[in-house]
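Q: Can I see a sequence and its folded structure?
A: Here is a first one.
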Amino acid sequence: MDDTLAYGDALAYIYSFTDYEKRGFAAYRPEFYNLDRVRHLLALLGNPQQGFRPVHIAGTKGKGSTAAMVESILRAAGYRTGLYTSPHLHTFRERIQAGGELISEADVVRMVADTQYLVAQVPEITTFEVMTALAFAWFAEQGVEYAVLEVGLGGRLDATNVVDPEVAIITSISYDHTAILGDTLPLIATEKAGIVKPGVPVVSAPQVAEALAVIEAVCLQSRAPLTLVGRDWTWELGEAMGGLEGQSFAVRRGSEVWRELWIPLLGEHQVVNATTALAAVWLLREAGARVPEAATRHGLRSLRWPGRIEVLGRAPLVVADSAHNGDSARKLMAALQAHCLFRRLIVVWGASADHATPELIDALLAEADRSIAARTQHPRAADPAWLQAQAEGLGFQVEVAPSVAQALAQALADAGPDDLICCTGSVFVAAEARTAWFALQGLPVPSGDPA
């Protein structure tokens, strides 16, 4: 082990590798994305992915929330759990968790130092592949029993797709990464359904007909039993819609009904995600997992998943969210209307150039009384002046600010106590809005969150 390596050095090492996801726009083909490199590295590490039972999750939106729900339920049931998600809000450590705790800086440093000589034996390996292999090795070291794994990009050729899961989950599919995954829903669905394995049960969230047809065909070909949320499992919203702390709901499977379930997340789409998570946990129970109903309820209720329609302030209302395509932006706006009472809507937003589609802009700004475009610190963030031009071409008036913090300050200076400020457009906007909000209050990021 290199005793001179610091945490910042370890991160710089991980991010130093060719990263096709960050470079973007390379077609999703085996010559650019393939599983050979990560399989090679995992073999050198002793195939740690064989030491835990994976739950594998692909989809366009909702996969992170669904992953967090499944993990929280299994942990409440007493299992040693792992959670692998991306991207992160505030720290790389959020991506890799065991038992509800983030990987420590010391463990990141140690894992990097101990594996550098193995990584060097795998030419052309990418950043995400290194992250994935290190996560799997750490999970095995930590004695993880169930690891809930979120796909990074696509599914078929994603580095996580080397596992043999107990259950596969496909969340809502919509248009995203079209330059890489394809510009039609059947093409995108084909890549997402690439996580389906022969005979392994699959849970799908409700899908548009084009995407569902692909999923059904892949499952039929693979003889993978398909559970479809909205058909086999259904949900009912509770009476508490309009509250800001969370929402109650009921779930039905055949003649069985689970009532008065509660999640600390807003929006009907999160109830759909919760129903999808419950269907997956049910399949794990059928395979032998011990998950009593009390653990299921507690796991959902105790979930912590910030940056998703998260209420930061009350007068005015200040919300941070991670919607980054048209479909998720529409769901965001529907949730704000359902849960929040407000006079004016001020939207603080940003996006990368490839995500700033007319569909996203229209969904975010159609009901806004004022909008401020800002640039995040992410290297692919679009210039706010460019975002302004795109929005004005669609008939919207947009102001610009050099940063999310400055845009939030401008919005707060204008907002009355009955107004709503929504900061969204990407996970990076949500993260910077959270940081700026707590800084304005003279507070650090809350202790329950990554720091």
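Q: Show me another, different protein.
A: A second, unrelated one:
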Amino acid sequence: MKIIYDENGDARMDTALTAIALFLAAMMVISFTSNPVTTGTKEGDRAPNIVGKAYNGSGWQDFDLQSYYDYEWSMGNNETKDSQWVMIEFMDTDCPYCFNSAREYQEGSNYFTTENPTWNGPHVNFIASATELTGLTGHDSSREEIMAFRDKTTGEMCNASNVDCSTRDGEAYAIPFIDDLDRTHMDKWGIGGTPTYFLIQPDGMIAWASPEHQDEKFYEAINRLVPQDGA
């Protein structure tokens, strides 16, 4: 039996093996030299995703926080024109401080938008994640209570079940309120109390976290960190 030796086939095999070796070597270099993105709730972390149902004024709709992100975004890359930032508040409709600061958050959602000629920066999407704090008197919430808090309608009791939700300061919101009554998102984000705020860049990275800046208001953080035309 005569064995036929294919020199060309052998050469092709050597080339393929060399290409694979170079590819693996390149991947190892990238893995050792690149900085992995950490998912967490500290400034500089990638914000944990939130998926669930949110009330937008007309009904409960699917919500996905990552749908707001543009992973190609970078600071200085036309950020004042096309990018959209996110400000999220973790709150409880029976939290007295959340009740008293509702006007402040509602007015911020109306101000930091490209529809406001006074604001020279990109659109900031305001979001609220409504939870039910446990172990506290009067903190028995519901979707109906979340809707009443957002829309300023009567018939539900807020602020530790002491007053009608319609009596809170400010106007009705025009932002989504996420249902987190089972504390899934609050626990995932490690929220210790309400209200807690996070400012998220268009690429999903946390630019500002209120637990790290106890003396700075959320609107002060936006003015300081979000690029504006001429700034």
